[in-house]
Amino acid sequence: MARRIVIASGKGGVGKTTVCVALGKALAAAGKKVLLLDFDNLRSIDLMLGAAGDVVFDWGDAAKGRCGVADAVLEADGLAFMTCPPDYDVLTNDDVKRLVREVEPGYDFLLFDAPAGIGRGLSLACAAAQKALVVATPDLVCVRAACRAAEQMESLGVRNSRLVINRAVYRDIRRKKLLNIDDVIDETGVQLIAIIPEDKNLRRAGMSGKLFAPRNLSYEPFRRLAKRIQGIQAPLWFV
How far apart are CA 110 and CA 229, in angstroms? Predict the structure, then answer.
């Protein structure tokens, strides 16, 4: 049975989808079979993987029987993924659960990229999830949103959450321009699993449609996150 993880933030612009795709690549590089499911109807995963032109069907089509599940699964840049339907009007949590039951035997990890906010898209993304990663940047607005997202996911039955602090800048934290790590943990109430430093290479990779290669130094925090998710000891990465 696949491990099913929803990745949420509460607020947009914190790098949640980048974390989702990069973690997927790190798990795939470790020999795991990974499927990304995009629950954000703004749809970014196919763009980040450079495969926007290849999309014909989305997971909503598969859930409603308009195509086979295999028809909605694409592969690009070493990852399998399913894109989000343009709207959620006719889709239910039960649709998501049935879809996940059908696809999960072929994978070790299913990563659900939730939309920003705490609305219906988050509810759908949590429908079949076992665990959650809550992504926050170390500032008050994003931390409050992450706290709300974690609370909402718990109310939806996803009670095993871990915190990913993204785009951390040690210099700014030391100068108190950003919250320190302990403050972020305390304010969100979520146990820390990873710290991802601010890295311009990640932004460039997302804009180019090809996320960074495993040999890039930017990849190392995600390699460590992938290990920690699997229960393998790995130090936090923060420089």
Answer: 13
CB atoms < 10 A from the CB of 215, how many? 7
Architecture of domain 3-229: 3-Layer(aba) Sandwich (3.40)
- Could you give the angle at which helices 220-229 and 16-29 cross, rounded to 10 degrees? 70
Per domain, the residue ranges of the chain are 3-229
Q: What are phi and psi of 8, to 5 degrees?
A: -135, 170
CA atoms within 13 A on the CB side of 53: 2
Six token digits for residue 108: 């070790």
DSSP secondary structure string for all residues of 25-93? HHHHHTT--EEEEE--TT--HHHHTT-GGG----HHHHHTTSS-HHHH-EEETTEEEEPPPS--TT--H
Q: How many residues does the chain have?
A: 239
Position 85 scores a pLDDT of 95
For the chain, give the mean pLDDT: 91
According to DSSP, the β-strands at 161-168 and 79-82 are: unpaired
Q: What is the pLDDT of residues 171-213, one digit of tens each?
A: 888 888 889 999 999 999 999 999 999 887 776 666 555 665 6
Question: What would you report as the CA-atom Rg of the chain, rounded to the nearest whole angstrom?
Answer: 17
Neighbours of 204 (CB within 10 A): 12
